[in-house]
Please model this.
Amino acid sequence: MSTDLRSLARLATGIENRAPAALAALRALPAGRAKIVGITGPPGAGKSTLVDALAAALRKQQKTVAILAVDPSSRMTGGAILGDRIRMQQHHADPGIFIRSMATRGNAGGLARATSDMARLMSASGRDYVLIETVGVGQDEIEVARVAQVTVVVLVPGMGDDIQAIKSGIMEIATIFAINKSDHPGAAKLEQELRAEGFHSPIVRTIATEAQGIPELLEHIDSLAQASPLQTEPAPPAGLDHIAIAVPNLDAAIAFYQSLGLVHTGTESVPAEKVRVAMLPPLELLEPAAPDSPISNFLGKRGAGLHHIALRVPDLNAAVERLRARGVRMLNEPRAGAGGHIYVFLHPASTGGVLLELIQEHQ
Model:
């Protein structure tokens, strides 16, 4: 793949926006060989500073790096609050480092929905390392372990009882623990607490602002990444994807749900269904694009309201085969829909009276 940074940035934008052409281009790319490293931990642990120090050390080794900094979403625009990119300005002129800030867009788990695809893109572009820094929101940042080969959990001295509070979340996904700001009192005690709690992952003490402990951390990363080669990302488990609401006026509905704090992540048309779609996760708003649209018929008969519930499945074709064998009625054959996914609708007569959509993000 071409490593032209502008082309890479354009394709990255398309993938983050779930543009069908960009997703198709990604699927056509050969797999790369990058080492995918997740950096997570509680707020204030110094994750961004540690990522910055790791990138600088890797560049001294002539390695190329992509940094995916997952930031909170702006409630005004839905875009990323670009704290990480601002902090890493020292690298802006280095073509060996590609930095991308990504908005969570309402996703839980510390990652943006497109993060795994973005990591695949950066690996396919020839990068040696992909560093993924999660949002600093606390113990639920466990999704990074599904994407990364190595997960570094960054902690700081003085956490005290916080070890107990977050043990059931991010602590258990650690491939490596980095005790950052280890020049502060309590570093030895924190390491002892980790051992006492039964964690056996390597522990490295770092002072990221001074690049101390970074070589040792990289040694562990390289060793463990070699033991865990990059695999094709496993399909996500089945689960709720969105709830769809039919509305007569999309703009008015968007404004209302934005006033409740939901983030508008995009609007597009689906010609096959004659509908305009706006996503405000976990909601999907549907407006008819023609008088004979199914949504027009729905609004005429029932008025605005719940239209369907969408479940995400890892293999749509396999799910359809199983359901057909049980006599479940389908309203359409699997086909492409909004956001690049494929979908099928199940008749309410087979689902307890609810129109149910099954979707698979990639075919």
Summary: Residues 73-85, 105-110 have pLDDT under 50 and may be disordered.
